[in-house]
Amino acid sequence: MIAHTPDTSRTGITVRGLRHAFNGHTVLDGVDLDVPAGTVLALLGPSGCGKSTLLKALAGLLRPQHGDIQFDGATVCDARLHEPPERRGLGMVFQDYALWPHMSVAQNVSFPLEMRGVARKARPAMVQDALALVGLHEHAARRPSELSGGQQQRVALARAIVARPRVLLFDEPLSNLDRTLRESLCIEIGALLRRLGTTAVYVTHDHEEAHALAHTIARMSHGRIADLVATNKDTA
């Protein structure tokens, strides 16, 4: 399944004093968090606990009202600075796949490379490598509508890793799949993340999913980190 390992750099994440409110309702209430380079952190909790808002803040899709975020010691967000998503070196995977229906699988995966100005001649090999990593190299010419839900999510994963991001962010990527498929794809994603060694933050409300994937689980409640639990996953 795996052709070779992309050369991703390892990036640590530091969050300090993150606060945010919508219409007077506090959704992030002084979040402090450290994600060591090369580790997978799961943000676990029920709907409304703040986990997706925290992920959006990390991604640059939302500017928190207070606090700061650093990637490898370099500030990407504080009171004076807000780096946009495209300048943070991120890969993102969403629960709804977010694939372009009129594009082929290869074109969907290639899109981030085009946006980052990667040379046209270099793109096909990078796309094939990413598709090989998720076991879809033989489906490059297909359209998303010709694939199963699990295959579409693999395309989304390939698109997230193709540009060799510093950090991978996942927003409940398996929630639209049936239980059996969620379990098998969860195992595959976990194995891939460990092989890549990329720092990742994974939002979920599923305890088994969090334990299967993450090195550390941050349980969120009412906009705060209620506790941190280390799993027995290796970071090497």
TrEMBL record:
Keywords tagged on the record: ATP-binding, Cell membrane, Ion transport, Iron, Iron transport, Membrane, Nucleotide-binding, Transport
Pfam families: ABC_tran (PF00005)
Matches recorded under Gene3D superfamilies: P-loop containing nucleotide triphosphate hydrolases (3.40.50.300)
Domain ABC transporter: 13-233
GO molecular function: ATP binding
InterPro entries: AAA+_ATPase, ABC_SmlMolc_Importer, ABC_transporter-like_ATP-bd, ABC_transporter-like_CS, ABC_transpr_FbpC, P-loop_NTPase
PANTHER family hit by this protein: SPERMIDINE/PUTRESCINE IMPORT ATP-BINDING PROTEIN POTA (PTHR42781), SPERMIDINE_PUTRESCINE IMPORT ATP-BINDING PROTEIN POTA (PTHR42781:SF4)
The name this protein goes by in its record: ABC transporter ATP-binding protein
Source organism (scientific name): Achromobacter seleniivolatilans
